[in-house]
Amino acid sequence: MATDLAPHSTRLVLDAPLPLDSGQALDRVEIAYETYGTLNADGSNAILIFHALTGDQYVASQHPRTGKPGWWSRMVGPGKPIDTDRFHVVCANVIGGCLGSTGPASADAQGKPLGMGFPVITIRDMVRAQVALLDALGIGRLYAVVGGSMGGMLALSLAANFPERAERVLAIATTARHSAQNIAFHEVGRQAIMADPNWQSGEYYGTGKAPDAGLAVARMAAHITYLSEAGLTEKFGRRLQDREAKSFGFDADFQVESYLRYQGLSFVDRFDANSYLYITRAMDYFDLAEEHGGKLADAFRGTPARFCLVSFDTDWLYPTSESRNVVHALNAVAAPVSFVELSAPYGHDSFLLDVPALDRVIKGFLE
Amino acid sequence: MTTLRPDLAVIAEHIPAGAKVLDVGCGDGTLMAALRDKRGIDARGIELSPEDVELCVSKGLSVIQGDANRDLAQYPDDAFDYAILSQTLQTAERPDLMLDQLLRVGRQAFVSFPNFAYWRMRLSLLVNGRMPVTRHLPVSWYETENIHHLAIADFEALIAQKGVKVEASWFFGRGRRFGKAGANWRAEHAVFQLSR
Q1: Quick one: B6-115+148-195 is in which CATH superfamily?
Q2: A29, A270, B68, B90: which could form a disulfide with A14 (CB 3.0–4.6 Å)?
Q3: Is the pTM of this model over 0.90?
Q4: Could you report the predicted ipTM of this complex, rounded to two decimals?
């Protein structure tokens, strides 16, 4: 399933086995990526963009499955805040993903899909893979690394673990560790997938049955966390869906139900359930302070990078207090850091949507 | 540098190149940008207004959005050579505690503030019997951010009580800079350079 989801992407196979935090290693790791703009002669204009949980490498190009424009095409392109006339932008599918990079749907040495045989990976493992990609592409030091949500975690992890690799670190709507609430919501999603009989202990590839119902429910639950209550109220209120009165049944009477069902159903066309399990696990394991002896400031001690953190006032998934934790840690080690909480009505998803102030901050930070 | 307010200009003049500086309530980053562009000083800022922080970031300045009443506590001791508080002391919840924080995170501090004992203020209050609204303090009492009006003499009493040392002071009125004599009458605003 994974390999044919990304027919147009460039792929690269890493020469060396990729060591993982679990102690295991992954052989012949394949990474699917997209690039935009031209790398200059001294390789100093590269920006790596990390995608979020259900994002992909098609940051500014048409998604091969959905036909939709890239997930951040409002931000990345010629003359856009991340200007591809000026910067060479790289965006790769994370390992564990399902858009061409090695993940649970990839085949083992015998040609059989790995399924649950794929090792549990971490945010740092995903970063390691992409640093190896940069090595292969001949990109030493990034002009900037940029990411929102999980992409922000990856950006912070890169800054902490490979401090020489990025001059600027821009982390949006993110956190340095997953909270109990974050883990709880992910667990609901995973349980929905694993409770679907079609999941078949993860061995559903080639059976003609996939845990689409479970994955759709996982997406529905998660999608609520990406929106704000005010946003939902404004968009849907208690309005009914294509009907004059309640049906006194369990059809999607309300617009919000219909919307969520649509979100769930359309998601299964572009995402693999096992990838959802593995990537949410990696996010739940993420705790940058824990990796560095329990003190977040130690993760950034001596960092040569400039940082910019952005949060949104309606984001309750990774609220402003989480960004402030990172800012305080950076202040404690005297790292140059900017931080702003922007006002936007869309909740966590604000980083993907029309928030002109975010465009200005990103453009300004990359000047 | 020509556009700097007189109090900012005097602060900028007295910060040596290479110093580590925190501008508390940095606004749109005018002083920080001047310090960087004229002196190569990498200043940091704190500012409450998101619009101003956005402007600062777009100038390439390192500014965090935050409330100086609370967020100064997050910085380690001696993090900066100079902490700057320009025209902000009178807006602090507790100006005395903010001074403590300034001189904890900075080895020295520059503090500028409007002088409520300026003679036109006194006269206005005496003659009109109402809280003065002047060129320097143009906002009515009910909507002003200045919740702790002070006179130069009040400030001097506070720092004397704290045992804080005055390294230098400057006084301004009607666009002119003058000496210490009669400053509590004559000055519209003052700048103090303090050390522990």
Answers
A1: Vaccinia Virus protein VP39 (3.40.50.150)
A2: A29
A3: yes
A4: 0.86
